[in-house]
Design goal:
It comes from Yersinia enterocolitica. Helices cover 80% and strands 0% of the residues. By secondary structure, the protein is an all-alpha fold.
Length: 217
């Protein structure tokens, strides 16, 4: 089947609402994943057996089970226990929990990479724990995390087609509906790929720029 540029142009407005939904879920999920990953990484530094066990269980479970299964559980199984979330909220929470586990491990490695002298100096100056973390440790740990966070953000964009299984009308779902109605598949799926590229490439360039800028600070 030949590619019809006129048809592709005509269906582009129908894909844009799905693109907007994709952006909303990914941005909200990425913020949740970053905050959750940072929190878990900090909690693991407290060396409390109970807290460490809970954090390790969370990381192990979400890193070693498929995101698709987790989304199914959150959307279809969890309501059986009385806790039901809207589809969009389920997508955000599912993406946040899944990627938060990966970001937590990355943050833990970055925190452990902060020179011991920085920890000793913070303690010697008797900084409160909150100030020590927010003003000294985390800013230094965040610097090597930029490329990692950029990769995970792009990865989240590429995982969003899985959200179609929980009825979220994201970009893939929109392309699938157009293909099903028109029996033309080249145009909607090609446009979908181009729109994903249009998001991922600037995101990658932005994080590369931020990384270079941080390297000169």
């Amino acid at each position: 089947m030949d590619f019809d540029f006129a048809f592709a142009w005509s269906i582009l407005p129908d894909l844009l609402p799905g693109l907007l939904v994709t952006l909303e879920v990914v941005v909200a999920g990425f913020v949740l994943a970053t905050l959750l990953g940072m929190l878990v990484a900090v909690l693991l530094q407290l060396q409390s057996p109970i807290i460490s066990a809970v954090c390790q269980a969370y990381v192990t479970f979400f890193r070693n089970t498929p995101l698709l299964v987790q989304l199914y559980f959150l959307f279809f199984a969890l309501p059986l226990s009385g806790l039901a979330l809207p589809a969009m909220a389920t997508g955000v929470v599912g993406m946040g929990l899944y990627y938060g586990a990966y970001i937590a491990e990355a943050f833990r490695g970055a925190i452990n990479g902060v020179p011991q002298g920085q920890w000793d100096a913070a303690r010697a100056l008797d900084f409160p724990p909150l100030t020590r973390w927010t003003r000294i440790i985390l800013p230094q740990a965040f610097k090597p995390m930029l490329p990692v966070l950029g990769n995970y953000l792009i990865g989240m964009f590429k995982e969003t087609p899985l959200l179609a299984v929980i009825t979220i009308p994201e970009l893939f779902q929109a392309a699938k509906q157009i293909a099903g109605l028109t029996y033309r598949y080249n145009e909607p799926y090609t446009l979908m790929a181009l729109l994903f590229l249009l998001i991922s490439l600037p995101t990658s360039l932005l994080f590369s720029y931020l990384e270079r800028r941080r390297a000169h600070v």
